[in-house]
Amino acid sequence: MNDLKDKSLDFVVKYYEQGKIDTKRALRSVKERAGMPVARTVKMHRWAAVAASLLVLVAVGIAYFGLRGEQEMLLAAGDSAQTFILTDQTRVTLSPHSTLTYKKSAPRAVALSGNAYFEVTHDQQHPFTVSNELSRVRVLGTKFMVTSQMGASHHLKRTTDVYVAEGMVGFSPKSGESQGLVLTRGMKARLTEGENTPKLVEAGSVNQTAWATGMFHFDNAPIDSVLSDLSQFYSLQLSCSNVSKRLSGDFKADSSRSNLLEIISIIEQTLDVNIRINNE
Question: Residue 2 burial by CB count (10 A; 0-12/13-18/19+): exposed, middle or buried?
Answer without folding.
Answer: exposed
